[in-house]
């Protein structure tokens, strides 16, 4: 097999390569002045099982398109199979219609990947696990929960409670609570607008406990801030915040420097900007 990296998260691809003791293959990826993308594999991929590491980091549309073009080039160069390693699968938050005349973008992305002949997708903590069914090829759906559990156990947190910020994350929270042998609580939220979340109420006991909030992603940080504020208001201690994917758009990190947050635990499915470094941030590798 051969391993290649797109331009979205070269550091993660290098870490994967070093775990596998396998060099990354050589591929040239250029942008034309017009913004169009050019790809050329600089070594033969004939009959190889190709693994392309490409996450959907910002700018997400460019990185998606780059992956499609890399897959097309590999197919046309007679690769035996093309496997997409997509640590963070973007566009997953629109996996169903919540209102009339809306798209289902997760299906659009799945269809595009299928059209260019991707044989297998390896991904991590999908926003909605049912997206696996949008493919008729295998999808390996991995999780960061094991790494998170190991890290959280090492912290010996007193009186923990695992908190799901909404009903969508309840299964993940329940699993983490089982792994940590802790109780769990669910918060109910409503969304007055796309990037606003308002907590309506909490099911479960949080008073005097240290919450471990589990999320699939932190995008603008708006949800997490309203969650930790809601928890403080109910008498909880400052929270540990865990999220697999640090999308961190729109000054999210500044928002997360909050007295209600003890520590933020994320993974390297997405690259973090240089400016985002703090003893309160722990990054686990999914390599
Ligand atoms: C929503 O259901 C997701 O699981 C996240 O809670 C949400 O997308 C995070 O976005 P933000 O950080 O912008 O609130």
Automatic annotation (TrEMBL):
Alphabetical list of CDD domains matching this protein: PRTases_typeI (cd06223)
InterPro entries, alphabetized: Pribosyltran_N, PRTase-like, PRTase_dom, Rib-P_diPkinase
Protein keywords: ATP-binding, Kinase, Nucleotide biosynthesis, Nucleotide-binding, Transferase
Ranges of residues in domain Ribose-phosphate pyrophosphokinase N-terminal: 2-117
Superkingdom as given in the UniProt entry: Bacteria
Leading EC class: transferase
EC assignment: 2.7.6.1
Catalysed reactions, as listed in the record: D-ribose 5-phosphate + ATP = 5-phospho-alpha-D-ribose 1-diphosphate + AMP + H(+)
NCBIfam families: PRK01259.1, ribP_PPkin
Protein name, UniProt field: ribose-phosphate diphosphokinase
Origin species: Polycladomyces subterraneus
